[in-house]
Design a protein that fits this description.
The protein is α/β, with parallel strands linked by helices. The chain has 16 helices and 13 strands.
Amino acid sequence: MEENTVIAFRRPTDFQEDPLTEVLQAGAHKLLAQAIEAEVASFLEAYAALVDDAGRRRVVRNGYLPERAIQTGIGPVSVRQPRVRDRGDGAIRFTSAILPRYLRRTKSLEDLLPWLYLKGISTGDFSEALAALLGTQAPGLSASTITRLKEVWQDEMERWQRRDLTAKRYVYFWVDGIYFGARMEEEKQCILVVIGATDTGRKELIAITDGYRESERSWLEVLLDLKRRGLEMGPELAVGDGALGFWKALRQVYGIAREQRCWVHKTGNVLNKLPKGLQKKAKSHLQEIWMAETRKQAENAFDFFLEAYGPKYDKATACLAKDRDALLTFYDFPAEHWKHVRTTNPIESTFATVRLRTYRTKGCLSRKTAMSMVFKLCQSAQKKWRKLNGSNHLAEIIRGLKFVDGERQDRAAA
């Protein structure tokens, strides 16, 4: 490539439909029309036996609704929906499952919009970003779109926070308090998050709420609210940072739940109390503890760390030793689950994106905006959360079967 070569990137204003996109749009228009016609025909067939006082069919077609364009990933697709008339009292109405009355964009685009916002696209830049993706003719995607969507997200979140949990059973909890770099408009600068593993191994978002720091009182309100909405049985194991006020609250609400301290948090806390020159070596010694195949091997590695670093760095070893039992609880659960329950990674990996978004937020971030951003991010991320390995063991844990070094006790004894 020559030294003075200039590569020109296309601007949204340069966007033009290509022949392939036009073919795809035409095909989509035809298929959508056929699907809706079939849906209407099926609806009319279901009421074919009904007749009015004059002996005519009561439910009939009655022309078309005005044409409208649906925004899709290949651009706008126009569609005309058939109108259905009830010649009787008008009680029978047709509502398309394919094309709801107020639908203006496909579900894939509904998911795209919050992700663009959460990835750092500001409200003012939305029109340009969407025009580059969908073409300059895409209507209804102005900067005000994201403002309206944020209001919708807040309503969705509030309804979700009131949902019934009676039928739910969670075997594991991952809990953490999330802080943001942006200034918050209120004192409650921490968002408390609970993710759970169901009895089938699926990870689900259980709770998102704001709290004062990570206090016992704030966590107690979270857990009591879960119980009030029907979650009578608590987790078999909860995973979190040792600094949380969560643990005192957990004992008050779900007293039989066992505790597992997060090894990522603990490792960071211990290393912070050591000189930088020792941290790499110390980290490998800490890893030998939680990567040990048996509790006995882990205990030996634990003792080695305390003996090796204790004489000079008593604060570091004290930080590790105070949570000794809670750091090794995972050995009493199936080995397939160890990589899931040794850390709060399900929360940490999810919130890396929302932290990035709030760092880019100018000015003060409102509590409702921060909460709704977290909620929508988790909803999108939840679709990609992996199922727990060895999910068949979850029913065994609920039944009270014991595990030793990751293996069922009856099998270990055999």
